[in-house]
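Researcher: Here's the sequence for the chain we discussed earlier.
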Amino acid sequence: MNQYEVTFIVDPVLSGDEIKATAQTYVDHLKAEGCEIVHMDEMGLRQLAYPINRRTSGIYYCIEFQAETGELLEKLELALRRDERIMRFLTVKLDKYGIKYNDDKRQGKIGKVKKKVKKEDSRGRRRGDRGDRRQGGKRPQSNRPAPKPATKPATTPDSKPEDGAAVKEEETK
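Model: Thanks. This is the structure I predict for it:
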């Protein structure tokens, strides 16, 4: 048997019951064609990458199913095209890697990444932590003395340079 996955976006202005009825319509359509529903995932309301029919969000559904042949896909896609409640759809035939990935995702092996615990350095601060500076506080003081400001020796027009360099004086006439 071949395994397929159809993902579609339902118009979000519909009521909750109408949205669920729309998804159930296609589940029933697939069952009537002799398909076995492996998994149905309601991904919920998500932002669209670009506006579709002046909408910026949509309700995503993904139905994974098995079928003997791909002949029913033409009927399914025609029904999806004709339905005004469906904004976009995509049907994909899954290979063995896609089937394994979806199975692992359902079992929780793949999914949200757990937060890493930051290690503390010798001063008790977390690595990469900037202390109070991000909140507008002062920098932590170090044990080193502050550097002395550099001063130049004052030279006057009558004084000669100490290093013995020749100074050109231009006479104006």
